[in-house]
Design goal:
Number of strands: 8
Strand content: 15-25%
Order of helices and strands: HHHHHHHHHHHEEEEEEEE
Structural class: alpha+beta
Mean pLDDT: 78
Radius of gyration: 24 Å
Distance between the termini: 33 Å
Helix content: 40-55%
Strand order of the largest sheet: 1-2-3-4-5-6-7-8
Number of domains: 2
């Protein structure tokens, strides 16, 4: 299997595993809320629904592990064991990764609390079980903050629909019909504020252009301001230097479409991160398999790499380019484009060849 196919495989497994774990976590919370209402059905005895709840939670733990292993193996993110297991240790979107890692530990605690209920007693079991709501909250923020599918309609529908279902069941659970006096205003107010806060954050953050750079999607170093990057790209440099490989950076820019020769998508983006620069690519729409010309300029050295994009699938672009010294660089990108044509994403550049000798 070549590196591009392996990266595609690991990332697809990471995405599928992540959303499956999230869906199962959501289902576990919903089933738990329904069970807490003591709903009875002659077709589904209580022990059957309890076992279903435990099984769904176990499946969520399994797919959470699958998701974590796939992310660790993904050549683009390259998480080490410490980054994968310790919150805030990740170089990739550390805050949002930390919420996912912490949520995973809490999910495991919720599942294990079912298995040791007889040993810890009902009161402690109930306290641990309420952590399921924290797991759901952390998983939602983690998915929005790190997921490359966050801005797709189906992902937004999943997040919003889940919040409405959980919120509605929670209100019904805490405010039963005919028992207004049992209303728990603090819990309900806190839940409502959490939903509003996450919705507002998502609208102005992960669902808005430029999130890849703001989320820390490439490097842990401070990102330069857009004006500084633009100024650096515009500065002429007389002596190009070698590019330090490999490197990752956040992409921000625009995508436009021309009407000539069947149409062409033109990408013009800046690199923001430990490495600054500019990327330009033109993708012909007439032929899906036609190589697209690509130019990568890295500042402050001014080193330029010219080549082609050779693959495009589900927002992932791959290609290579050649340096003046004969080195061939491998380029892998993940990009997202909103309705206005604004682009954001991440780019990874690594060495695919050695310099030629004279």
């Amino acid at each position: 299997m070549n590196p591009t196919d392996f990266q595609t495989l690991t990332w697809d497994i990471a995405r599928i595993g992540g959303f499956t774990a999230y869906g199962l976590t959501l289902a576990s919370v919903v089933i738990g809320l329904v069970l807490s209402m003591k709903v009875k059905s002659p077709r589904f005895p209580r022990f059957v629904t309890n076992e279903l709840h435990r099984f769904v939670t176990l499946l969520a733990v399994v797919f959470m592990v699958v998701h974590g292993i796939a992310v660790a193996l993904d050549p683009f993110i390259k998480l080490g064991p410490v980054e994968l297991l310790v919150p805030f240790a990740s170089h990739y979107r550390p805050v949002w990764m930390a919420l996912g890692i912490t949520g995973g530990y809490l999910l495991l605690a919720v599942y294990l609390s079912e298995r040791i209920r007889s040993r810890i007693g009902y009161s402690w079991w109930r306290r641990l079980h309420t952590l399921a709501f924290v797991v759901y909250l952390f998983a939602t923020i983690h998915g929005l903050g790190t997921g490359t599918d966050s801005r797709t309609p189906w992902a937004i529908a999943l997040y919003a629909g889940g919040a409405l279902v959980v919120g509605g069941l929670l209100v019904y659970r805490l405010w039963p019909t005919g028992a207004v006096g049992r209303l728990r205003p603090t819990v309900l107010l806190g839940s409502a504020l959490a939903i509003v806060a996450v919705s507002a954050w998502a609208w102005r953050g992960p669902l808005a252009p430029g999130w890849a750079a703001a989320a820390g999607g490439a490097a842990t170093t401070k990102l330069p301001a857009a004006a500084e990057v633009a100024g650096a790209v515009a500065r002429p440099v007389s002596t190009p230097e070698r590019i330090t490989l490999p490197f990752q950076a956040a992409l921000q820019g625009t995508v436009t479409q021309t009407k000539t020769d069947g149409g062409t998508l033109v990408i013009d983006a800046t690199l923001n991160g430990a490495v600054a620069g500019r990327l330009r690519a033109s993708i012909p729409l007439a032929r899906d398999d036609a190589p697209a010309p690509l130019t990568l300029t890295v500042d402050p050295s001014g080193a330029t790499c010219v080549g082609t994009l050779t693959s495009a699938r589900d927002g992932r672009l791959g290609g290579s380019c050649s340096m003046a010294d004969g080195r061939v660089l491998a380029i892998s990108m993940r990009v997202g484009v909103d309705d206005s044509g604004a682009l954001d994403g991440t780019i990874q550049v690594s060495g695919a060849g050695e310099p030629t000798t004279s």
